[in-house]
């Protein structure tokens, strides 16, 4: 932690929302668009996040939809994850309504039991458990060269952290979610209940335009947005930190705290296309993993109450995404109607 960045601070001269420094001049559309283009060009290996590991229960499958295709995930008898199409190969029943018994997924229409091995036209899908999230590889949907494992960003040590997962759904495409996260300038304006005193001190722009100091905090190279911001606690109490936003693959943006309280903690935002709604509009799921860590003694006690802390973390993330989905949906609407100014 750098000197002068305390873990808890009192804002001595708080600025009213409407009097804070405007950020629209710095938030140049070209910077965001260039960062988005670079993110979309990175390989994903056709891996998609479908939910939280804790959502894979022992008695029923985790169900999801990716690019219009139904998916189910469950644990085999030996504890490994199994994934495959969510359509029963017998008469098309939704396997999401089935039950898991002794590691087999039993269809609730006629009792067909799948153990994860190929059966008739049912073929398993590659699946990955990263300890927090479940990923499924869908080569037909992704169309890229497959990778053996997804691009999972570095995280705090599992034994010294708490992870919470929040999921929300919006009418937009994954790129609209990623673009939202690659615009850190909107934080204190759009989310004043959570963020104050936000300054973007480094951008990934290139070509000699200049955008502040280089983004060298946290080992993410020069392709991240570096932000000084304070998280609101209560009243004028805040926690000032420095964070870096990067996009390691086309459907993921990571915010990592590199200085201040919770150094090393990350917020991973993953965007998964679901398929069209009844009006033919695209729907995208945001699966956000907040992985918090701290060197403070009290954090051990917080880990002891992990179920309660997870709910609080997920609730806070969900509030932010109610706003940010409005941003992403608006961007999609204007982009597809030809009215997007960026």
Main attributes of the structure:
8-stranded antiparallel beta sheet; alpha+beta; 342 residues; 20% helix
Notes on the structure:
With about 350 residues, the chain is of the alpha+beta class. Helices cover about 20% and strands about 35% of the residues. Strands 1, 11, 12, 13, 14, 15, 16 and 17 form an eight-stranded antiparallel sheet that branches. Strands 2-10-9 form a three-stranded antiparallel sheet, with no helix packed on it. Strands 3-4-5 form a three-stranded antiparallel sheet, with no helix packed on it. A hairpin with a 5-residue loop joins strand 4 and strand 5. Helix 3 crosses helix 6.
Class derived from helix and strand content: alpha+beta
Largest sheet: 8 strands, antiparallel
- Report strand %: 25-35%
Mean pLDDT: 90
Categorize the overall geometry.
globular
For this entry, what is the oligomeric state of its chains?
single chain
Number of strands: 17
Order of helices and strands: EHEEEEEEEEEHEHHEEEEEEHH
The Rg value, from CA coordinates, equals 21 Å
- Give the CA-CA distance, first to last residue: 36 Å
* Unreliable sequence segments: 207-221
Helix content: 10-25%
Number of helices: 6
Q: What is the topological layout?
A:
Blueprint: E1 9-10, H1 29-41, E2 47-52, E3 62-66, E4 69-75, E5 81-85, E6 99-101, E7 104-106, E8 113-114, E9 127-129, E10 133-137, H2 139-142, E11 161-170, H3 174-181, H4 187-190, E12 195-202, E13 225-234, E14 237-249, E15 252-260, E16 266-276, E17 282-293, H5 298-304, H6 306-337
Antiparallel strand pairs: 1-14, 2-10, 3-4, 4-5, 6-7, 7-8, 9-10, 11-17, 12-13, 13-14, 14-15, 15-16, 16-17
Helix pairs in contact: 3-6
């Amino acid at each position: 932690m750098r000197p002068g960045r305390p873990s808890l601070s009192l804002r001595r001269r708080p600025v009213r929302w409407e009097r804070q420094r405007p950020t629209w001049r710095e938030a140049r559309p070209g910077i965001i668009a260039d960062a988005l283009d670079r993110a979309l060009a990175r390989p994903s290996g056709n891996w998609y996040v479908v939910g939280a590991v804790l959502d894979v229960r022992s008695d029923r499958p985790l169900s999801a939809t990716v690019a219009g295709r139904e998916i189910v995930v469950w644990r085999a008898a030996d504890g490994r994850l199994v994934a495959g199409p969510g359509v029963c190969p017998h008469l098309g029943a939704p396997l999401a309504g089935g039950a898991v018994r002794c590691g087999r997924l039993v269809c609730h229409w006629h009792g067909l039991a799948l153990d994860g091995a190929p059966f008739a036209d049912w073929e398993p899908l590659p699946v990955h458990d990263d300890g927090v999230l479940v990923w499924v590889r869908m080569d037909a949907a992704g169309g890229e060269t497959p990778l053996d494992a997804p691009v999972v960003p570095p995280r705090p040590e599992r034994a010294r952290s708490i992870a919470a997962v929040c999921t929300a759904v919006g009418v937009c495409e994954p790129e609209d979610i990623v673009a939202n996260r690659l615009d850190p300038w909107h934080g204190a304006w759009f989310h004043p209940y959570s963020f104050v005193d936000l300054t973007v001190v480094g951008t990934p722009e290139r070509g000699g335009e200049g955008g502040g100091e280089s983004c060298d905090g946290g080992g993410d190279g020069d392709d991240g947005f570096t932000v000084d911001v304070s998280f609101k606690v209560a009243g004028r109490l805040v926690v000032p930190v420095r964070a870096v936003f990067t996009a390691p693959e086309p459907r993921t943006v990571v915010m990592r705290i590199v200085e201040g309280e919770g150094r090393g903690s990350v917020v991973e935002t993953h965007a998964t296309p679901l398929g069209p709604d009844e009006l033919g509009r695209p729907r995208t799921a945001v699966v956000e993993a907040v992985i918090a860590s701290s060197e403070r003694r009290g954090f051990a006690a917080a880990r002891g109450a992990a179920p309660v802390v997870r709910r609080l973390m997920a609730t806070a993330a969900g509030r932010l995404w109610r706003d940010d989905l409005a941003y992403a949906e608006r961007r999609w609407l204007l982009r597809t109607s030809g009215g997007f100014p960026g």
